[in-house]
Amino acid sequence: MAMRWYVVHAFSGFEKKVAAALKERIELHNMQDRFGEVLVPTEEVVEMRAGQKRRSERKFFPGYVLVQMELDNATWHLVKETPRVMGFIGGKADAPAPITEAEAATILQRVEAGTEAPRPKTMFEPGEMVRVIDGPFNDFNGVVEEVNYEKSRLNVAVLIFGRSTPVELEFSQVEKA
Fold first, then answer.
1. What letter does residue 70 receive in the DSSP assignment?
2. Does the pTM of the predicted model rise above 0.85?
3. Residues near 95 by Cβ (< 8 Å), separated by ≥ 6?
4. Is CB count within 10 Å lower at the N or C end of the chain?
5. Cβ-contact 50, 113 below 8 angstroms
6. Whole-angstrom Cα distance, residue 17 to residue 87?
7. CA distances from 164 to 105, 135, 143, 159 (A)
């Protein structure tokens, strides 16, 4: 049998503990030949706090763990009886359906991209309304015209005395309206 990717539903906030417990149980029961990777899909994000860049991890799918395995009775029971596991996603309760190879490749590619180049925690798009929360234009509303993720800055068109004025601000100086 070939190994396929299955999605396991875990308690939210316990994804890493479930993954570690699963790896431990696989070794304890000598089933390394039937299991591949056990993965919590995360990406690295950067946010500005107190003027400093902070890196943290964000989960794509909170509450889910991806497991590469050959499905049979023994492996199904091993996963199902792991603490803080609620069950499999997809298919029936006793016969879970694997995700497609294309879906698995997309998720793995996103995990890989997330470790190479961290993304900002908050995403802004041109045309989006924002409220300035810091600096000389405090409490003004504006429309995002341009976003520069490398420098963590935005160009915002702020209405001052009825006129649209372009202002360059940092991500930390604005919030979504």
1. -
2. no
3. none
4. N
5. no
6. 15
7. 45, 18, 10, 5
